[in-house]
Amino acid sequence: MKLIQKKRIAFVGAGNVAWHLAQALAAAGHEIKAVYSRSRTSREALASKLPQAQPIATPDFKDLTLDVVFISVPDAALAEVAAALKVAPGTLVVHTSGSQPLTLLQSIEGARTGVFYPLQTFSKSKSLDLAQVPLLVEAWDEDTLQQIEALARSISSQVHTVSSEARKQLHLAAVFACNFTNHLLGISQQILQEANLPEQLLQPLIEETVAKAAQQNPFAVQTGPAIRGDENVLQAHLQLLQQHPGYALLYQQLSRSIQTQAPNGDAKANQG
Amino acid sequence: MKLIQKKRIAFVGAGNVAWHLAQALAAAGHEIKAVYSRSRTSREALASKLPQAQPIATPDFKDLTLDVVFISVPDAALAEVAAALKVAPGTLVVHTSGSQPLTLLQSIEGARTGVFYPLQTFSKSKSLDLAQVPLLVEAWDEDTLQQIEALARSISSQVHTVSSEARKQLHLAAVFACNFTNHLLGISQQILQEANLPEQLLQPLIEETVAKAAQQNPFAVQTGPAIRGDENVLQAHLQLLQQHPGYALLYQQLSRSIQTQAPNGDAKANQG
Fold it and tell me: What SUPFAM superfamilies does this protein map onto (chains A, B) (predicted)?
C-alpha cells in the first residue's frame, strides 16, 4: 500500500466511467462524499457502492467540504452540467472526457480545473483493474497539474500529461481501435451463431491479431482476401451476407480501404 | 512428446500458411520431403528451413514416396493448382483454405482428398505456437477423416470437424474479427503516429475490448460516441479525419452500423 494524500471527492454523473473511477478511488483510500446524477436510480446505485457517499439531487456542492469534483457525464451534456455546477472556491474540478477540451470547465466559478481521462472502455457489468489503465491528465498550471497527477498515481501506474489537442486525436484513435473493433467482433459472433458454430473458435485468431498489431505495423502484416485481391472470395462473402445488407456494405468498404492502403508487397510475395 | 505416426509430406505453396504448417509438422516429427512453389525464391526459402526437404520446380510428386500433399496457395489459384498436381495413387491431398470447398480437389486423379484449415493469421516474420490453433478438418469418408485428424492432433490440441458450408461462414466471421480488425488497428496507429503519441497507449484498451468481447455479447457492451448518439463528437472526429477521406467514410459507415444494430438500452441508461 503506497502512502496517498487522502482527498474528499464528489462525482457528477453515475455512468460507466464514474462507476469504476469512484470505486477505484475509494479502494485507494480516498473519501467519496457525494454522487450527483439526474437519474435517481443511477446516483443511488453508485452511492450504495461507496460507504461514505450520499446521493444528491442537485449539483450544488458549496456546503460540502471537498477537494475534488469529478464530472463524468456524456460529452454532449458536459457544457450544460459544468454551467450548473456550484462548488466552494478553490475546489479542483476535473472532467473525464476523451474528446472535450479543458476550456469547457472555464465557466465554473471559483474552481481550479483539469482533465482526468481514463483511456479504457468501461461497463458496469464487468469489473476492471484500473492499475494498468492509462490516465491522461491536463491542467492550466503546474501546481494543479501536480495535484491531479498525485491523485491519478494513487490508482494507476500509467499517468501521462497530454494536451487537449493530442487527447482528441487519441480519442479518435481509440474509437477505431476499440469501439469499431468491438462492433466487428459482434458481427463476427453473430455470423458464428447463425451458422451454429462455437464462438470461442475465433478467440486464438483474435488474440494473435491483437498481439501481432502490438509488435508490428498492422498495415505491414495485413492478411485476408482483400489485400490478396481475391475477387472470388470477396464475391462469395458478399453472397453469404445477403441477409445482412448493412454488413455487406461494411465488408465492401473495409475491403476497399485495405486495398487503398499502401499495397503490401511483403504479404503479396508470401502467397503461392 | 506424444507418439505420432510419422508421415512423409510435401507442400504445394510456400506462403505464410505453408511456412508455419510445414515447420510445425517437421517439429512434430514428420518428414517434409519436398516444397513446390512457382516462385523459386519462396520454395528455396521454405525448403532451407526443413532439413529433409528439396525445393522442386513442377508440381509432380508421382515419383516421391509420400503420404500427404498439402496444397497451401491463394484461394484464387487453388483450382488451377489442383488440376496441375500429379500424385501417386492413394496419396492424401489436403488444402488449407478457409473459403474453398472440399469438392475443389475432386479433379486430382487417384488421390484421397480432405481439408486441413488452420484458423489463424500467419506472417512469416512472426513466429507462432500452433498447439492452440484450431485446425478445422473435413474429408469424404471416415477413414480419410481419421488420418487427417491424427495428423492434425500431432501439432494442435484444437481439432474440429467442420463441413465446407460451415467453414465458409467461419472464414467470413474471421475476416471481420481478424482482417478488418487488423486494418482498424492500423488506422488507429497511424492517427497516433501523426499526433506524435506513443502507440502503446492504446494497448490496455485494445486488450480489454477483446477480453470483454470473449465474455459477453459485444453488441451488448458497445460503447463510444456512435452508440451514445453523440453527434458533436462524431462531427468533431470527421473534422479531424479531413486529411483521410477514406477513413472518414469508414468512420461514418461503422458509426451508422453501430447505430442500426439493436439499440443498447443498458449502455444508454448508464450515461449521466
Answer: 6-phosphogluconate dehydrogenase C-terminal domain-like, NAD(P)-binding Rossmann-fold domains
